[in-house]
Design a protein that fits this description.
Elements lengths: L8 H7 L36 H16 L3 H12 L5 H10 L2 H7 L6 H9 L3 E3 L2 E2 L12 E4 L3 H12 L10 E6 L2 E5 L14 H8 L2
Antiparallel strand pairs: 1-2, 1-3, 3-5, 4-5
Helix pairs in contact: 2-8, 3-4, 4-8, 5-6
Length: 209
């Protein structure tokens, strides 16, 4: 699985908003967004007016970096969303929101999606009582997500929950236990459950060209 190995704060600066790629550190004075630093690079102020293509590209890049997916995988999600009835943009965001690493983060078991992916691949998370080490697994209504019942896993998640600074648990998820930490998917996510300020229609227009 590919991964970004460069400075992740640069990604937030490029998009101009917090993507919470470093968890609780994003809420400290060390965050470059709070220090009013501009976009990365030597020439921070670019001439000319941004094009329509640029607006659409930035929306796509924002979503990819927020959920931690690369271009090929993102295209697959778009193709899945295009085959579903209803609004393609909303279907795309719902698919990304259903990723297991996102659910672990939204339940506050991890402070960031990169940490959630590491927890899942290292076997700290179970789905319906079975270990699952696939961060891209799409959860379904009724799925039970829990932390593995061992001291190391429970201690790590307890520290994350205690110092968690992400938004509260969304309505489509329920916290069902604390020892070990557990949650349940009560329904599929809707457009109002997306925490990232994004315009999915612009992404659809870009990828439909």
């Amino acid at each position: 699985m590919g991964r970004h190995i460069g400075p992740v704060c640069r990604l937030c600066r490029r998009e101009g908003l917090k993507l919470f790629l470093k968890g609780s550190r994003c809420d400290t004075p060390k965050c470059p967004i709070d220090r009013e630093r501009g976009v990365p690079g030597m020439h921070q102020f670019r001439r000319g007016k941004a094009s329509e293509y640029s607006f659409r590209l930035r929306e796509k890049q924002k979503v990819k970096r927020y959920y931690g997916v690369f271009e090929r995988q993102f295209r697959k999600y778009f193709e899945m969303a295009a085959r579903r009835p209803g609004n393609t943009g909303d279907a795309l965001m719902a698919l990304l929101e259903r990723r297991l690493d996102n659910v672990v983060t939204r339940l506050a078991f991890a402070t960031s999606r990169p940490q959630a992916r590491q927890m899942i691949t290292h076997g700290h998370v179970t789905v319906n009582g079975k270990k699952l080490d696939i961060p891209s697994y799409l959860v379904k209504p009724g799925d039970q997500i829990a932390v593995k019942d061992r001291d190391h896993s429970k201690k790590m998640v307890a520290l994350n929950i205690e110092g968690h600074s992400m938004p509260p648990v969304p309505d489509w998820l329920d916290r069902t236990g604390d020892e070990p930490a557990a949650g349940r998917v009560s329904r599929l996510p809707a457009s109002q459950d997306i925490s990232l300020p994004v315009q999915p229609q612009l992404i659809v227009e870009l990828l439909s060209r």
